Amino acid sequence: MRLQRGCLNALGLRLLALLALAAGTLSSCSEDEDFRGCTTVLPLHPDPTGNHDTIQGALGNAQPGQVICFHEGVYKLHDELTLTTSGVELRGSNTEVGTVLDFDGQQSGANGLSVTADHFKLTRITVMNTAGDAVRVDKSDDVTFSFVTVTWKGPSSQNGAYGLYPVESHHVIIDHCKVSFASDAGIYVGQSDHVIVRQSEALHNVAGIEIENTTDAEVVDNYAHDNVGGILVFNLPNLPVKDGKRAKVHGNRVLNNNQQSFAAPGSIVSMVPSGTGMLVLSTDFNELHNNTVAGNQSVGLAVISYLLIGRSDYMTDMQYDLYPQGNYIHDNQFSHNGYNPQDVALVLAAGIGMHTVPDLLWDGYVDAMRTDPSLRNCFQANTGSFVFMDAQNRFHAPSTDIAPYTCTGTALPAVTW
Amino acid sequence: MQWKSAPLVLAVLAGLLTFGCGGDQAAPPDGPPPDDTIPYQNLSRYGFFSDPVAQTPAPGVLPYEVVSVLFADGAGKLRFLVVPPGGQIHFDPSGRWTFPDGTTIIKTFYFDRDLRDPQAGWRLLETRLLMLRGGTWSAYTYIWDDAQTQATRWVAGRTLHVTQVGTDGQPLTFDYRVPSTDQCKTCHAQDTVAVPLGPRTRQLNRTHDYGQGPVNQLDAFAQMGLFDSAIPAPSTLDKLSDPAGTDALDRRARSYLDANCAHCHNAAGTASNTGLKLNWETTTPVDLGVCRRPVAAGHGSGNLLFDVVPGQPDQSIVVYRMRSTDPSIKMPQLPTLTSDGFGTQLVSDWIAALPAMTCQ
Fold first, then answer.
1. What is the DSSP letter of A245?
2. In angstroms, how far is CA A142 from the centroid of its own chain?
3. Domain A132-417 class, CATH top level
4. Which of B22, B296, B297 minimises the CB distance to A24?
5. Crossing angle of helices A48-60/B181-188, nearest 10°?
6. Hey, are the CB atoms on A60 and B182 less than 8 Å from each other?
7. Could you list the residue range(s) of the whole structural domain that residue B125 is in?
8. How large is the ipTM?
9. If 0-12 CB within 10 Å is exposed, 13-18 middle and 19+ buried, where does residue A312 land?
10. Residue of A108, A138, A183, A189 to mutate for B, most B C-beta atoms under 10 A
11. What residue of A is the nearest CA neighbor of B24?
12. For B175-195, what is each residue's pLDDT tens digit?
């Protein structure tokens, strides 16, 4: 802003800027904004229709290899943007002000940006106030979000469900992104494979980061705080992509996820009690290690079966594996979790005669038909307290002794491709 | 030839002016670019219509109708098929047909000007083309101008303001959304590849009058040599029911869902991730939404727990979303702005008539 005003005060530059703007090419203050590598730079209009025409026109005419760039400032929009051409990057301004796509008052489309395109990059752009999901990427291969911010005005169940939402996609990187106030999950990876979520921040969402029915995901060096739940690794029934596994979750800070829930009732995340650090639900062969998990009032990390949550819809999915198996949870730093359990966490704690919940919880459901040692859940070298709930035996013999469940599991390599 | 020079001069001048003002696309120095590459900028350039405003098809442009119509905010629709000379369609009794390269499918959207008087004519809104070239279907949209003289290609989507005289003689004013070209693919993409949706056996197995009285369209196509093989008698082939007709409720509702929801809600469509499959072939109750918990609906669930609760339409997310006009809740997501009261009632009736059961 500062430099732009400076530019506009100089008459010569102003004339140049007007000419440049009129020619539809670069605008005024290119000395501040770096458009190297851009094949198109989209002018900023004062009205949503003008912005939509310009941006969607560029997306509709895009060719593979194009880098479509934005100026600094707020592009107001009232209609969904859609990209279906592969090999395109959308890149925001490099300035401190940056580029914002603000969908406040959105009138059409269920997403802010809807992408079905391989080799897609979204770089350095803030997406705000979408009616539904902010950025949905569907059935795409090779997708990179970097330095993308998504937010809404504040916590509300009327906010869009997901911030960054790759689904049924492959080879996805979410790097240095920040998502807040999503009414379901800030960063939600669904039914995908080969995914890296790193150095990103999720705050004030219902779920911070959710990896669902996804295989080979690495969630590394993120900061999930002040959500209802910090990091969730789920497998859900009745979905076309089944049996997600092998999430490597490490080096994350998962702190103070004590946001009061504003999830839509009935959604799976509405069952997550406020104050959940990490949750592993009916998914196998994950490795969660070297995370710092602190200040989450209901529980630090819970490993649970779909059987625990009291739903019976799994019965229509014969392939659904109810049991979390072969998970390796080690070298995590837990402190001050479960001190004030909420909702279902409170009920469960009461069920085993506790007023608070230990840092680390395993409900104890095992598949009696499968006794292969590689299917054991292993807990090793974590700091913090533990409880085995013995849910399978109606909570008959819960135990805080971790020794029977201490073992060395299978470490996962970093996700690469 | 002298009469031609004035427009030419004007054209050159216009080109210079455009250039001087720095329009987005600098015109070449010899005038505006000729409209000679597909997609053309002007719809009339294709020659699909002998009278574009009257939508009178040119020879070789074949009108057709579908059994179950996709609701388009109440707009009327005209459909045409252009198969290149000598080309033939590979017929499939249940799956999608394979069209010869060069095929164009045309759909024009309009509103009647006066609901009391069909003779008052129509206001054309948009004409959408699906063109198969080099093995790929591409979508091109042409928006009709207010003066109804021409339709010009538009990529970005646009909201049109429509005025109509209602049945009570009072003017009705409302918005109509032309989707962006990329949004075409949201519905038309099956496993990310765009395909035609309407022209298939179960949708075209109905009568149309090609000038000599009503005939079955499939028979008519076969007689014109449009199929690459003989086809079975249409009476033995798959056929949807007219949702507004008199067939059994289950058939009418499922036909409506197939035409209005299944382009996304099938195993290859944009909503495949939801697992909700509303296509005609689906028989498994949970795939049809029965006691299915939504996975990614967010507040689109309306605080309800299941897509379809048999016997209880008001407890069914499907009905809640069909009633909504909120862009983050409404179904279908695109491109309508209003709720289809008829279709919502039909689907409600269907759910109400399903044998009641308790979902858990």
1. B
2. 17
3. mainly beta
4. B22
5. 70
6. yes
7. 43-236
8. 0.90
9. exposed
10. A108
11. A24
12. 999 999 999 999 999 999 999
